[in-house]
Amino acid sequence: MDVLKFNLSSAYHNPSAVTAGPASSTAVVMLPTIANLSTTYFINLKLTDSSNEVVSRNFYWYSTTADAVKNACKWYYCGASKSANMTSLATLPMITVTHTDSVGANAVNTTLTNSSSSLAFLVRARVLDNAGTELLPVWWTDNYITLLPGESRTLTASYFNNAAPPSGATVHLDGFNINPN
């Protein structure tokens, strides 16, 4: 578990060992109160197996200014009377995430790399045909991902019924602060 300030400096780091069986849940660590956090901050969770391979990853964005819920709620909805302060996300610089693609017989693999010194926030990958139309349905191993500076991740897009991608299929990236490419 890593808690990062908005400038991506570390506010808290806690590698914790856990033993858990398949299809189970185990409480690992309770996040302590952390002083001097930026208004918007991030929590990066990574679960690795005994050979240090990543099994699961989750990236969260939080605010030191919490949402406030209205007193009057309907059974299906409680509106916010005040929203958490996430305005600093709008100041993230626009960056380019590079990608290397490999079109296979029934899938496309793409390795995304954030070579910048900034956060690549909510990167979305799509497979496009020659005309620039998104190919659907496609099942991604992951999508709308966040990459820290220097981080790379490989995603796979599989086609419905293992169909072959059309000739000329390409991967296109965009996202919250991502220059489309």
How would you describe this structure to a colleague?
Helix content is 0%, strand content 41%. It has no helices and 13 strands. It has strands at 2-5, 10-13, 40-48, 54-63, 68-69, 80-82, 98-103, 107-113, 120-128, 138-140, 145-147, 152-159, 170-175. The strands form 4 sheets. A 4-stranded antiparallel sheet has the order 2-1-3-4, with no helix packed on it. Strands 7-8-12-10 form a 4-stranded antiparallel sheet, with no helix packed on it. The chain has 181 residues and is an all-beta fold. It folds into 2 domains: 2-90, Immunoglobulins (Immunoglobulin-like); 98-175, Immunoglobulins (Immunoglobulin-like).
Q: How much of the residues is beta strand, in percent?
A: 35-45%
CATH topology of the largest domain: Immunoglobulin-like
- Gyration radius, to the nearest Å? 19 Å
What is the CATH architecture descriptor of the largest domain? Sandwich
Strand order of the largest sheet: 2-1-3-4
